[in-house]
Amino acid sequence: MSEEQIRELLRRFQEGEKEAGEALFKQLAPLVRAYALRMAPHSGEREDYFQAGMMGLLKAAQRFNPARGVKFITFALAWVEGEMRLYRRRTGSPLKVGRSLLEQSRRLHRCREQMVQDLQREPTVGEIAAAMGMAPEEVALVMDSYLPLSPLEEEAMADGEGRSDEERLLERLALGEGMMKLTPLERRLIVLRFFDELTQAETARRLALSQRQVSRFEKRILHRLRAHMQPEI
Asked: Which residues contact 3 (CB under 8 A, 6 or more apart)?
């Protein structure tokens, strides 16, 4: 199926045409199943991983914006793999992550699923944040644990060549935990600089700081985040 055909089905699906979504998912299901074969640690779990991956495909189809110039397959695979990794962690994977972030991830997932049922649509980050009593950037950071790398993650993990997927996921979760330990101002600064990709001057205006202060805070915060991600000896 060509990219143009995929986008046409996506457009119709996002406009509420259920049949278009079914046709799209049927076409892409073999790709998801291939991922499940690679991700599942045991053959008996492949169907569960496949179902998790199909949930990721559904989320990708709901969120995809063709104006961003990214191919849907590229966008969708990040969600497919993310949902499979989330399933792995929830079902007793050997991956060990901080209890606080894992519990927040579970709470966020339950909250989002309930809001989808109540609203009959995907809730916004702001709506989830209000329901959970969290700052929107905190919700975004937990959700970003399963998305492609942000510029901040790329910088913090610049020396990660040769590491396994699981090690990279652990690093991303560790980065998320480090972000949770920042003050609201520090976290807002990092979100503006590395997630929203604003310049230091633009960030300074948003936070009513000088550019020099932003530069100084940024260096100090990145140093703390890198220290948090260092393995314990």
From this structure: 71, 72, 73
pTM value is 0.42
CATH architecture assignment, domain 1-94:
Orthogonal Bundle (1.10)
CB 232 within 8 A of CB 174: no
Give me the amino acid identity at 97: V
Among the listed residues 103, 150, 107, the one whose alpha carbon sits nearest the alpha carbon of residue 128: 107
Query: E strands along 97-187, which residues?
Result: none
Q: Where are the domains of the chain?
A: 1-94
Computed from CA positions of residues 9, 13, 14, 17, in that sequence, does the dihedral angle turn out positive or negative?
A: positive
What is the pLDDT averaged over residues 172-198? Answer: 76
Task: Give me the pLDDT at residue 142, please.
Answer: 63
R_g (Cα) of the chain, nearest Å = 19
Q: How far apart are CA 216 and CA 92, in angstroms?
A: 41
Cβ neighbours of residue 186 under 8 Å, at least 6 residues apart? 217, 221
Residue 146 has pLDDT above 60, yes or no: no
The residue assigned the tokens 């519990």 is 103
Q: What stretch of H or E contains 107?
A: helix 99-119
C-alpha 193/C-alpha 24 separation (Å) is 36
Q: Within a 10 A sphere around the Cβ of 18, how many other Cβ atoms?
A: 9
Residue 132 scores a pLDDT above 80: yes
* Average pLDDT rounded to a whole number, residues 13-32: 90
3-state class (DSSP) for residue 41: coil
Q: Which of the four pLDDT bands, split at 50, 70 and 90, describes residue 154?
A: very low
